[in-house]
Design a protein that fits this description.
single chain, 35 residues, mainly alpha, 1 helix
Length: 35
């Protein structure tokens, strides 16, 4: 369990990063589209 935990945390962090970037990309496109 001790070895899997850091890998899981890294996976979770990358997942959060991907989901946040997926939310940010359309928002940026919308901002660029408005201007």
């Amino acid at each position: 369990m001790g070895r899997i935990l850091p890998v899981f945390n890294l996976f979770k962090r990358s997942l959060i990063l991907i989901s946040s970037s997926n939310l940010l990309i359309p928002w940026i496109h919308q901002l660029l589209g408005w201007r």
